[in-house]
Specification:
Bound molecules: beta-D-glucopyranose
Number of strands: 15
Radius of gyration: 22 Å
Largest sheet: 9 strands, mixed
Order of helices and strands: EHEHEHEHEHEEHEHEHHHEHEHEHEEEH
Strand content: 15-25%
Distance between the termini: 45 Å
Structural class: alpha/beta
Number of helices: 14
């Protein structure tokens, strides 16, 4: 089938609601759909109407292997499909080389705007520089691309707030007493977000370590820095280097196993676990749940992946953070549409990427526990109640 990139092209057939364009490839997927109505749809339709010769946007996401990015893919396809556009999302499958090839493919297909969530924030600089040279506007999606001025805009959740919410949850749900073991885990060091999440978590957890309420159980680097309220990037890197999961379930599992094997009785009992996201949280939780010397554990997460929402309902994961991918995808499409219409996109902050202050649009996050899972995720229409068991 003919390969198409996400194409903001309103054809006569689309206007009539007969949406036919579709295609697929190993790394991407293309879908169309009709119906619905949103602000983004209106903006997109206007832009499409303005661009008689067609407008094209390419989307590159890091991997299909984590449900988080399938949520984003679904939202892109829905928003653009609802607006009557064909679209294609390419996945980099954990490889910066594939990511670069994906970007090159999209450039060769004539895109005007690239929306990209980098596999590796620093390595992606070369790919987006190529896009920029080809006259493409680059929107970094969720993860900042660093060390290059080829990033025009950034659409993101408040990632420091994610880390703060995770840390605060552990503080608010701490067992009685002091010297409570705290196990730290982090995301991939190649992802700028891993630093932002850790920064937020450290900000709220560190005072509790410094005053002896918590004791760090699994990172000599963190223990060495436990009296420092604010860490430099290099200091964060030392800790993350030691407790990284690489955003990989298996790495998370084997690190958790190794940590519990090494831990003495004083680091067991009622414990706290800072897990950076849902996929790693489930792996780590499963390990902690089977250790007979762990009496109870509180464990964080983020993304509100379906499997983790079920874990939260079942009491196997303590919290998750809802990052509404509907908003992030809609914001980046709105931004693309503004660019294509020759307008300046709406931004509300900037992020320094070591080369420039990148104008950014930031979205708030919502903490989800057993108590508000229904209100946050079902009543908001993000999931169906029937997708879960034991929901009250
Ligand atoms: C995203 C998280 C995600 C993680 C692993 C981060 O950059 O912000 O939502 O869980 O990457 O893919």
């Amino acid at each position: 089938m003919k390969k198409k990139i996400l194409s903001l092209m309103l054809t006569a057939a689309m206007l009539a609601g007969v949406l036919t364009g579709c295609g697929s490839s190993n790394q991407g997927s293309t879908t169309t759909s009709a119906g619905g109505g949103t602000d983004t749809q209106t903006a997109a339709e206007e832009a499409a109407g303005d661009a008689k010769d067609g407008i094209q946007v390419g989307i590159v996401l890091p991997t299909k292997d984590e449900p988080r990015w399938l949520q984003d893919q679904a939202q892109f396809e829905k928003i653009l499909g609802d607006a009557g556009f064909t679209n294609q999302v390419l996945f980099s499958q954990g490889s910066s080389a594939t990511e670069k090839t994906n970007v090159e493919t999209l450039i060769s297909q004539g895109i005007s705007v690239l929306i990209i969530c980098a596999q590796d924030g620093s390595a992606a600089a070369a790919a987006v520089e190529e896009a920029k040279t080809a006259g493409v506007t680059v929107i970094a999606y969720d993860r900042l691309i660093t060390g290059t001025d080829a990033v025009d805009y950034y659409v993101t959740f408040d990632s420091v707030a994610v880390g703060e919410a995770q840390g605060q949850y552990l503080i608010d749900n701490v067992p009685e007493g002091s010297g409570i073991p705290l196990y730290l885990y982090a995301g991939a060091a190649t992802d700028n977000n891993a630093f932002l999440f850790f920064e937020g978590a450290w900000k709220v957890l560190q005072p509790k370590v410094a005053d002896g309420t918590f004791v760090i159980a699994n990172s000599s680097e963190a223990t060495a820095l436990q009296d420092k309220a604010e860490l430099t990037r290099d200091e964060q890197a030392k800790i993350i280097g030691q407790v990284t999961t690489d955003w990989d379930f298996n790495v998370a599992k084997s690190k958790a196993e190794a940590h519990l094997t090494a831990a003495g009785a004083d680091l067991k009992g009622d414990v706290l676990v800072l897990a950076p996201n849902d996929g790693t949280a489930r792996s780590i939780a499963d390990v902690f749940a089977t250790d007979k010397d762990i009496t109870s554990y509180s464990i964080t997460g983020q993304d509100s992946e379906k499997a983790s929402v079920q874990y939260v309902i079942d009491g196997k994961q303590s919290m998750t953070v809802f990052k509404d991918t509907r908003t992030l995808a809609a914001d980046s499409v709105k931004m693309a549409v503004s660019v294509l219409k020759g307008e300046t996109p709406v931004t509300d902050t900037t992020y320094n990427n070591e080369a420039k202050d990148v104008p950014a649009k930031q979205t708030d996050i919502i903490v989800v526990t057993k108590d508000n899972v229904k209100a946050a995720l079902i009543d908001s229409g993000y999931y169906e109640a029937s997708e879960f068991t034991g929901l009250e």
